[in-house]
């Protein structure tokens, strides 16, 4: 039976909903910790709470998925009639959790109006690609993680960055690189188009950094984000130095011994004359 | 043309990062896309995935976007993965994607494709070249041994490349790559000394052997002759083709990262992908 809206729905469920549901089933402790924290949060009123970060992140993404489903139905992209099973986390229906999770996500469905189905399909594809493991870890640490974990993880990255600046020829082991992948790729992986204000209407708005000033948890996230930014500037400076060194090495290889000695003497000026990219303390990497 | 998207995105379960765009028309061909440095299916190729809405050739095409991690994966391993897994998608449409919970994307889900096209960008171009040279070598080796060659599907492909990295990085190309692919990609490739970094140094063993094998095999396997579209200026890779390739074409005012991205103002990638030529 060919039913295109229903086919789209099944494909969406497989890519957007099932991975998070599977995570919460495979890690019941993460799920239960998050549910308990949410219950405490309600008792504590508006007091900001963090922790149980793995579970909370997945639950917020599931709330977002529900909003995408509704957006898709309104756009005629998904069917209304098809029976999609209710999402239940532990023993709690997602719609009951959504209000509590709104502390993090905001009122998603109310923020969305309607969409062209082609635009919606493109946006869903971009969103699926944007949720890389590095981006998920970045969001988890910035929004949900406790102070101790945040501090430990950013310090790891800062140490690597400082080492790289001091020793541009350094090679890092795989484990160490895996630990700092969230700093290297997390900010890059955000779906971001400067000229597209409509992005701020989509259900992913809550995790878009442009919207974080609206969030109660933004102040804490901002502090960590500033450290991530400074750390990345160090990496950027170091890689610019490496590129410059490689260019010089290339120049040396391409000349005879006497000319090579001369090159070392004026390599800075030659680099500028050759219109190469340079590192600027204020603006980062640019073009001379 | 019907309203609504012409394709639906389907994530291939057993191959992480591989995405199939399933046409809702009868698909007469499969186009395989292999991205470059830490590229992504939609982000790298921009409006290819939605091109079926306005272009009949692309509407009647299933599109397979191959995903891999250029910071971790070995180039030869990715080439091997592409070569050996293509049989799951060609010549018959990928069975798991043709029925989701009892629902099919189109009426005809079983007729084999009549055409295969392989598009590679940057590092993805080198991956495809390696995969095709390996398949050709395997056919010769198998014939010599009196055995049936395996994983030959990719030799049916028409090879079309956007600024391929087959001649390696330009001097200081890393900085161009920062602009093209993001800071994290380059830092990670360098600090790990990943395959994508070491193997793309001009004169590397991988670059030399891939070129030599391709040029030796191309007289017998014309499929190995690539059609190429270079960006001008390209500040990431050396713009040098193999001796056996077709004469390359160049497009001005496109960068290494934008050369393969069609949009309403730049339709050339769609035309080149479909024909291997400029209009």
Can you put this structure into words, describing what you see?
- The complex is a heterodimer of chains A (288) and B (279).
- With 288 residues, chain A is mostly helical.
- Chain A has two domains: 131 residues, no CATH class; 157 residues, no CATH class.
- Chain A is built from twelve helices and four strands, in the order αααββαααααααααββ.
- Chain A has a two-stranded antiparallel ribbon. Chain A has a two-stranded antiparallel sheet with strand order 3-4.
- In chain A, α7 packs across α9, α8 packs across α9 and α8 runs parallel beside α10.
- The C terminus of chain A is likely disordered.
- Chain B has a single domain, classed as Alpha/Beta hydrolase fold, catalytic domain (Rossmann fold, 3-Layer(aba) Sandwich), CATH 3.40.50.
- In chain B, α3 crosses α4, α4 packs across α8 and α5 packs across α6.
- The chains are: A mainly alpha (288), B alpha/beta (279).
SSE order and pairing:
The complex is a heterodimer of chains A (288) and B (279).
Chain A: H1 4-26, H2 28-43, H3 53-75, E1 88-89, E2 92-93, H4 94-105, H5 108-111, H6 117-130, H7 133-144, H8 147-166, H9 174-185, H10 218-253, H11 257-265, H12 267-273, E3 277-280, E4 284-287
Antiparallel strand pairs in A: 1-2, 3-4
Helix pairs in contact in A: 1-2, 1-3, 2-3, 3-4, 3-7, 7-9, 8-9, 8-10, 10-11
Chain B: E1 7-11, E2 19-23, E3 29-34, H1 41-45, H2 56-59, E4 61-66, H3 75-85, E5 115-121, H4 123-145, E6 157-162, H5 173-181, H6 183-192, H7 195-198, H8 205-217, E7 227-232, E8 249-252, H9 268-275
Parallel strand pairs in B: 3-4, 3-5, 5-6, 6-7, 7-8
Antiparallel strand pairs in B: 1-2, 2-4
Helix pairs in contact in B: 3-4, 4-8, 5-6
């Amino acid at each position: 039976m060919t039913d295109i809206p229903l086919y789209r729905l099944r494909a969406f469920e497989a890519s957007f909903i099932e991975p998070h549901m599977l995570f919460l089933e495979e890690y019941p402790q993460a799920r239960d910790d998050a549910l308990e924290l949410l219950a405490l949060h309600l008792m504590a009123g508006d007091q900001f709470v963090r922790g149980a970060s793995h579970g909370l992140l997945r639950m917020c993404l599931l709330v977002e998925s529900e909003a995408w489903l509704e957006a898709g139905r309104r756009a005629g992209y998904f069917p209304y009639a098809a029976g999609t099973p209710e999402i239940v986390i532990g023993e709690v229906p997602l719609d009951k959790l959504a209000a509590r999770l709104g502390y993090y996500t905001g009122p998603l469905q109310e923020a969305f109006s309607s969409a062209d189905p082609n635009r919606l399909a493109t946006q869903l594809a971009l969103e699926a690609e944007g949720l890389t493991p590095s981006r998920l870890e970045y969001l988890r640490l910035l929004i949900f993680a406790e102070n101790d974990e945040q501090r430990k993880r950013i310090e790891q990255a800062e140490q690597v960055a400082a080492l790289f600046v001091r020793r541009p020829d350094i090679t890092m082991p795989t484990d160490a690189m895996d630990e700092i992948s969230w700093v290297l790729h997390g900010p890059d992986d955000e779906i971001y188009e400067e000229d597209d204000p409509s992005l701020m209407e989509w259900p992913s708005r809550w995790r878009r950094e442009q919207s974080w000033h609206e969030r109660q948890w933004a102040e804490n996230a901002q502090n960590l984000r500033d450290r991530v930014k400074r750390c990345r500037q160090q990496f950027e400076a170091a890689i610019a130095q490496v590129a410059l060194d490689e260019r010089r090495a290339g120049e040396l290889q391409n000349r005879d011994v006497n000319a090579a000695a001369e090159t070392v003497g004026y390599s800075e000026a030659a680099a500028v004359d050759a219109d190469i990219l340079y590192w600027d303390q204020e603006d980062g990497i640019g073009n001379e | 043309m019907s309203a609504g998207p012409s394709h639906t995105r389907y994530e291939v379960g057993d191959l992480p990062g591989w995405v199939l765009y399933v046409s809702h028309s009868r698909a007469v061909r499969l186009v395989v896309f292999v991205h470059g440095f830490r590229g992504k299916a939609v982000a790298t190729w921009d409006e290819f995935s939605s091109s079926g809405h306005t272009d009949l050739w692309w509407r009647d095409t299933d599109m397979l976007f191959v995903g891999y991690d250029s910071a971790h994966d070995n180039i030869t391993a990715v080439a091997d993965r592409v070569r050996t897994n293509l049989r799951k998608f060609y010549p018959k449409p990928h069975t798991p994607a043709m029925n989701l919970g009892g629902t099919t994307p189109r009426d005809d889900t079983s007729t084999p494709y009549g055409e295969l096209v392989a598009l590679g960008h940057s590092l993805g171009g080198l991956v495809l070249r390696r995969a095709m040279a390996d398949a050709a070598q395997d056919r010769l080796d198998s014939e010599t041994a009196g055995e049936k060659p395996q994983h030959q599907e990719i030799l049916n492909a028409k090879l079309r490349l956007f600024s391929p990295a087959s001649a390696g990085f330009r001097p200081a190309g890393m900085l161009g790559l920062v602009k093209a692919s993001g800071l994290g990609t380059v830092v990670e490739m360098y600090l790990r000394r990943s395959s994508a970094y070491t193997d793309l140094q001009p004169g590397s063993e991988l670059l030399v052997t891939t070129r030599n094998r391709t040029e030796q095999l191309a007289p017998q396997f014309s499929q190995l002759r690539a059609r190429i579209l270079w960006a001008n200026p390209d500040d990431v890779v050396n713009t040098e083709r193999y001796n056996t390739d077709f004469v390359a074409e160049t497009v001005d005012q496109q960068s290494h990262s934008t050369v393969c991205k069609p949009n309403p103002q730049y339709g050339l990638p769609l035309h080149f992908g479909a024909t291997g030529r400029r209009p």
